[in-house]
């Protein structure tokens, strides 16, 4: 029995990409522009974007939610995989950085599928709940302010339909949650979220060591 996931050194990672990545030209362009940005490491990895597109297609997702847009790579991966009548509600707090995302959405002809909500995500999620959007979303991706992860998750769980899927990013946070001597705010928040989800019988759970760690939570 194989007990642990393989460590991807640079050579193995390059190999993985060389035999599996099928990145749309527009995603590549967005990734290359983002790479010049000082906070480029915030963008998801391209194989993760491909996995998101894969899940959107596999699950026939029509209505999606994203918390944390940045320069738009993950939202683009979602929107490109949605059907023509699909829709993405994308939440971010930063009106400036998301102008880059909006430019790529237009260039990819997916802008009409996306509503950008510029506000603290908790406020946007509360408004969607007030607007009776509960149990209407098929898929949600959580990738914003780590100390608020449980607050996002609890709201998103209300918004997602039974049988819908939530993906949470950065759940392994460079390995820091496994080291109890590390007690910074982000690490503690992710540790608490992981424990919260592990104990949550409203969902089926799978944590994968993809990129910085992702958790898939399937709502019963
Ligand atoms: C890790 S980045 C998202 C990366 C994006 N998913 C991608 O793959 O390119 C996190 C984003 O969350 C946004 N953010 C931070 N705090 C937020 C909050 N309270 N509400 C909404 N968005 C927030 C930041 O502005 C930033 O764009």
Can you describe what's shown?
- This protein has 220 residues and is of the alpha/beta class.
- It has a single domain (26-219), classed as Rossmann fold, CATH 3.40.50.
- The protein has helices at residues 10-20, 25-34, 46-58, 73-81, 98-107, 121-130, 149-159, 185-198; strands spanning 63-67, 87-92, 114-118, 137-142, 160-169, 203-208, 214-219.
- The chain has a seven-stranded mixed sheet, sandwiched between helices.
- Helix 4 links the parallel strand 1 and strand 2.
- Helix 3 (46-58) packs parallel to helix 4 (73-81) and helix 6 (121-130) runs parallel beside helix 7 (149-159).
- The protein is globular, with a radius of gyration of 17 Å.
- It binds S-adenosylmethionine (SAM).
- S-adenosylmethionine is lined by residues 42-44, 68-71, 73-74, 91-94, 97, 120-121, 143-145, 148.
| Multimer state | single chain
The amount of helix comes to 40-55%
Number of continuous helical runs: 8
Helix and strand pattern: HHHEHEHEHEHEHEE
Q: Span between N and C termini?
A: 30 Å
What are the segments in which pLDDT stays under 50 over at least 5 consecutive residues? none
Q: Provide the spatial order of strands within the biggest beta sheet.
A: 3-2-1-4-5-7-6
List the ions, cofactors and other small molecules found in this model. S-adenosylmethionine
Please tell me the total number of domains. 1
The helix/strand class is alpha/beta
Average pLDDT reading: 97
Largest sheet, if any? Answer: 7 strands, mixed
Principal-axes geometry comes out as globular
The overall strand count is 7
CATH domain class name: Alpha Beta
CATH topology: Rossmann fold
Determine the CATH superfamily: Vaccinia Virus protein VP39
CATH architecture designation: 3-Layer(aba) Sandwich
Portion in strands: 15-25%
Radius of gyration: 17 Å
């Amino acid at each position: 029995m194989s007990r642990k996931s393989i460590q991807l050194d640079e050579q193995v990672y390059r190999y993985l990409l060389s035999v599996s990545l099928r990145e749309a030209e527009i995603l590549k362009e967005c990734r290359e522009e983002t790479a010049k940005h000082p906070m480029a490491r915030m963008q998801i990895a391209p194989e993760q974007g491909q996995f998101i597109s894969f899940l959107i297609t596999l699950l026939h997702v029509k209505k999606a939610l994203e918390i944390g847009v940045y320069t738009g790579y993950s939202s683009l991966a979602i929107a490109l995989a949605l059907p023509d009548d699909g829709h993405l509600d994308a939440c971010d707090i930063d009106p400036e950085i998301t102008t880059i995302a909006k430019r790529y959405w237009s260039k990819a002809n997916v802008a009409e599928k996306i509503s950008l909500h510029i506000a603290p995500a908790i406020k946007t999620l509360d408004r969607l709940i007030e607007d009776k959007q509960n149990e209407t979303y098929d898929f949600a991706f959580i990738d914003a302010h780590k100390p608020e992860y449980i607050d996002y998750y609890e709201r998103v769980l209300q918004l997602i339909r039974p049988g819908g899927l939530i993906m949470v990013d950065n759940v392994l946070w460079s390995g820091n949650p496994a080291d109890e001597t590390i007690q910074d705010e982000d690490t503690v928040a992710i540790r608490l979220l992981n424990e919260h989800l592990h104990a949550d019988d409203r969902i089926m759970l799978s944590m994968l060591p993809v990129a910085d760690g992702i958790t898939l939570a399937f709502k019963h």
